[in-house]
TrEMBL record:
Domain of life of the source: Bacteria
Family: Belongs to the short-chain dehydrogenases/reductases (SDR) family.
Keywords: Oxidoreductase
MF-aspect GO terms: oxidoreductase activity, acting on NAD(P)H, oxygen as acceptor
Chain segments annotated as coiled-coil in the UniProt record: none
Gene3D superfamilies on file: NAD(P)-binding Rossmann-like Domain (3.40.50.720)
Record InterPro entries: NAD(P)-bd_dom_sf (IPR036291), SDR_fam (IPR002347)
The name this protein goes by in its record: 2,3-dihydroxy-2,3-dihydrophenylpropionate dehydrogenase
Length: 269
């Protein structure tokens, strides 16, 4: 018996990294999953690797209402319901500072990054609202330690994730009592996370950085988690048994980054 037996989930950005780990964990816990993924290559890989009886894939743009609605409609058409929507797709600014951006990069980068990191989840919530109300389901946003603390990115990324934290709280307020809304704030990990094309970062991947050293150095636990290490928080929040009292919360699973002594050490290092 899994924590999510008979549940149906929609997940954006499920083709690699944390999203791909979430697909596997959701399946292990008994759910059926519709994945909304932008990359055609990652869509093909998902279709080749996953049981088509339990995983369906939509190639589309998580920053649009139409693609989010297509994923929701597929879940309802194929399996009759939607229990959880996980808005996971996002972009990172690779810690680009204000000094390092031209005015044009700042202008265009803001629009592109906020479109996926903030507007995308809001459009997803709108697309999923009717189905989630029908099931008394839940909506979960992937945030970041950057939603809670400075230093996990540049001004564009940090502000977008703080906006996401506000969105979690406001949607939880608006959609109660029928839909629970929560966020998960992981630290970094080795993944294929990319940046805005308008800032010249579309082909730059986190996988090219020494994330293991960077994340371990900036956390109290002094290790770099694997993507799968973060997935339990989503299962808890999606669970109708163990997450039933939780709404408007952001689970800080950022490897102990928020411990005061460690943060001070980082600032002084």
């Amino acid at each position: 018996m899994g924590w999510l037996d008979e549940q149906v989930a929609v997940l954006t950005g499920g083709g690699s990294g944390l999203g791909r780990a979430l697909v596997d964990t959701l399946l292990e816990e008994g759910a059926r999953v519709v994945v909304l993924e932008y990359s055609p290559d990652k869509c093909r890989a998902l279709e080749a690797e996953c049981d088509p009886g339990r995983v369906a894939v939509v190639q589309g743009d998580a920053g649009t209402y139409a693609s989010n609605r297509e994923a929701v409609d597929l879940a309802v058409a194929r399996w009759g319901r939607l229990d959880t929507f996980i808005a996971n797709a996002g972009l990172w600014d690779f810690s680009r500072s204000l000094d390092d951006m031209t005015p044009e990069e700042l202008d265009r980068g803001f629009d592109e990054l906020y479109r996926l990191n903030v507007k995308g989840p809001l459009l997803a919530a709108k697309a999923a609202l009717e189905a989630l109300r029908a099931s008394n389901g839940s909506f979960i946003m992937t945030l970041s330690n950057a939603a809670l603390y400075p230093g996990g990115g540049g001004s564009l990324y940090i502000s977008s994730k703080h906006a996401g934290a506000g969105l979690v709280k406001q949607l939880a307020y608006e959609l109660a009592p029928n839909v629970r809304v929560n966020g998960v704030a992981p630290a970094g990990m080795v993944s294929d996370l990319r940046g805005p094309a308008s800032m010249g970062l579309a082909d730059t991947s986190v996988s090219g950085l020494d994330m293991a050293t960077m994340v371990a150095k900036k956390s109290a636990l002094q290790r770099c988690p694997e993507a799968v290490d973060y997935t339990g928080a989503y299962v808890l929040l999606a669970s109708r048994k163990y997450g039933i009292t939780t709404s408007g919360s952001i689970l800080d699973v950022a490897n102990g980054k928020g411990l005061i002594g460690r943060v001070v050490d980082d600032l002084l290092a």
